[in-house]
Write a structure and sequence with these properties.
10 helices; Immunity protein 30 domain-containing protein; 141 residues
Length: 141
């Protein structure tokens, strides 16, 4: 059974879908959009997030775009590179968000190694200065 959000996005009714998303928490939206992407592997959900970004560019929406590309759609050519772009943009929009920086370290672990070892070490040091107990960051020192 398709959800209302799923039907709106598939029908390209992005304005109505945006209205529904506005009534969700960030966690609800993230869970919903990822569930839809994993279920269908349809790039249309990424297009919807891009449409949201066009309306209002935020760290959260760049993060969502990155997660979509780096997980359910990672098999598409260029998906990791595009995901890395969005992850970096998310950090640019919210430089104080340690979790976004920790997520950015993921791009050192993928086969394409889009974040070099030196960049990962520097980023890990920044994270540890903000969150000394970060287990994620400690792995890169």
């Amino acid at each position: 059974m398709k959800t209302r959000l799923e039907n709106l996005i598939i029908s390209l009714k992005f304005t109505e879908a945006k209205a529904q998303v506005d009534g969700m928490t960030k966690d609800e939206f993230e869970c919903s959009i990822l569930e839809l992407c994993y279920k269908s592997e349809n790039i249309l959900y990424y297009s919807f997030v891009l449409d949201l970004l066009k309306s209002k560019e935020t760290a959260f929406l760049h993060y969502i775009a990155s997660i979509i590309l780096s997980h359910p759609l990672c098999h598409l050519e260029g998906a990791y590179q595009a995901a890395y772009y969005h992850a970096k943009k998310a950090v640019e929009f919210d430089e104080d968000d340690v979790e976004l920086k920790e997520y950015l370290l993921f791009f050192n672990d993928i086969p394409d190694k889009l974040l070099s070892n030196q960049e990962a070490k520097t980023l890990a040091e920044q994270i540890l200065s903000l969150k000394p107990k970060s287990e994620v960051a400690k792995q890169y020192i």
